[in-house]
Amino acid sequence: MTEAVATREFTLTRVFNAPRELVYRSWTDPDDATHWWGPDNFTTPRDTMSFDVRPGGQWQACMVNDATGEQFPSSGVYREVVPGERLVFTWGRQGDPDEHKPVVTIELTDKGEHTQMVFHLVGHLAEGDLLEMEDGWSECIARSMTHLSR
Fold first, then answer.
1. From 8, 37, 85, 90, which residue has the greatest number of CB atoms within 10 Å?
2. How many domains are there within the chain?
3. For each successive 10 residues of the chain (150 residues), what is the average pLDDT?
């Protein structure tokens, strides 16, 4: 039996112990993103990452499972870029049509010496895929929080 596909979404809100500019840079600079991009037990080699951070610009990265070596190439297109405040981009497997990929929105706001990040993903997905994505992104964001607190 195939799981029903529907428009599904989730939101993750986190407060970083880092200034907004550093949190934004961690999403837009591959040299920073390589330290946290991917869930636990995955690595994303710097040479697989490219970010053309402008509306219509493309990004790509390839996560590698540390235990098996299996590769998970992903890519998307930036739809909206407000430096230091907001990013909207598509995210999904390389080769999938961009219009079928989920859309990620990152919003950053100052909270004193900290930064609140609201991560929102919406897409046409099966429930199991959504839960897997939410778990994976939660782990990625936790890794980015650790990276930025150093």
1. 37
2. 1
3. 86 97 98 97 98 98 98 98 98 94 98 96 94 96 94
